[in-house]
C-alpha cells in the first residue's frame, strides 16, 4: 500500500490524491472549473489512474481550446451534498451517463463531502440517510460501487458517521469508506484509518489528505509509510 501524498504542480489549485479500485496508483482531486491539459500526468514513472472533481461532472475543456481533447484517466463522480442544489445536477449527470465519461472499471461513485462541516456539505445524518436511500443505494443494484460520506477527521466526524449509520437502519451500504485527514502527526493518521476500518470493516480510500494542520498552517516534517491490506490506495 502506498500512503497518498500531497501533489504540488504549477497550476492555480492544490490537487490531492484520491484512490483507485485497480490498486495501481492514486488519482487526482481536481476542481472542475479549472481546466488544463492532463497529459503531464501521464509521463513515464507516474502512477495516477483516476480523478474526481468534487461533483458529478467531468472536466470539460473550453470550447475555444486549441488543445486536442483527451482525458487519460477514468472519472469518479461525486454527489457532494444532500440538498436539491446538489442532488438534481447529480441525477441529470447520471441520466447522461456522466457526459459519457469513462468511469473506473467498478464504476465508483463518491458520497457527500464533509457533511458534518458547516462550510462544506452540512447535512444532518437523517437527511443524508434519506438521500442515500433514495438516490445512491439503488445504484449499487445497477453495478455502481459507492463510497461513504467523507466526514472530517475529528470527533465530530466520527459521531456524524455513527449517527448516519443509525439513521439508515441498515439501508445504507457503502462499499468502501472515503476518509479525509489534515493534521501534523503521522501516528494520528494511522490511528484515524485504523479506527474506521475496525469500526465499519470496509476498505478505505483517503480522498483528501495533507500533512498539515489547516487551523495553524504548519507543514508536517515527518515522512512515513504504512502497510495495511484494507487500504485500497
TrEMBL record:
GO terms for biological process: fungal-type cell wall polysaccharide metabolic process. It holds the Pfam family Glyco_hydro_cc. InterPro entries: ASL1 (IPR053183), Asl1_glyco_hydro_catalytic (IPR024655), GH (IPR017853). One of its GO terms (cellular component) is fungal-type cell wall. Residues 41-222 form the Asl1-like glycosyl hydrolase catalytic domain. It comes from the Eukaryota. This is Asl1-like glycosyl hydrolase catalytic domain-containing protein. It comes from Kwoniella europaea PYCC6329.
Amino acid at each position: 500500500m502506498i500512503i497518498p501524498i500531497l501533489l504540488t504542480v504549477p497550476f492555480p489549485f492544490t490537487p490531492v490524491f484520491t484512490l483507485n479500485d485497480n490498486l495501481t496508483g492514486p488519482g487526482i482531486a481536481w476542481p472542475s472549473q479549472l481546466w488544463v491539459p492532463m497529459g503531464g500526468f501521464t509521463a513515464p514513472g507516474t502512477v495516477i489512474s483516476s480523478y474526481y472533481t468534487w461533483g458529478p461532472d467531468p472536466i470539460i475543456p473550453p470550447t475555444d481550446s486549441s488543445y486536442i481533447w483527451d482525458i487519460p484517466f477514468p472519472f469518479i463522480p461525486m454527489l457532494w451534498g444532500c440538498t436539491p442544489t446538489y442532488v438534481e445536477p447529480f441525477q441529470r449527470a447520471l441520466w447522461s451517463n456522466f457526459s459519457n465519461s469513462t468511469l473506473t472499471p467498478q464504476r465508483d461513485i463518491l458520497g457527500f463531502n464533509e457533511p458534518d462541516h458547516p462550510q462544506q456539505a452540512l447535512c444532518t445524518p437523517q437527511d443524508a440517510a434519506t438521500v442515500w436511500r433514495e438516490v445512491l443505494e439503488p445504484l449499487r443494484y445497477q453495478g455502481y460501487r459507492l463510497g461513504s460520506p467523507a466526514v472530517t477527521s475529528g470527533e465530530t466526524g466520527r459521531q456524524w458517521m455513527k449517527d448516519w449509520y443509525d439513521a439508515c437502519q441498515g439501508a445504507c451500504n457503502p462499499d468502501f469508506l472515503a476518509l479525509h485527514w489534515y493534521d501534523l502527526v503521522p501516528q494520528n493518521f494511522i490511528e484515524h484509518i485504523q479506527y474506521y476500518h475496525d469500526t465499519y470493516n470496509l476498505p478505505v480510500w483517503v480522498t483528501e489528505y495533507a500533512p498539515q494542520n489547516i487551523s495553524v498552517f504548519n507543514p508536517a516534517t515527518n515522512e512515513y509509510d504504512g502497510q495495511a491490506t484494507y487500504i485500497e490506495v
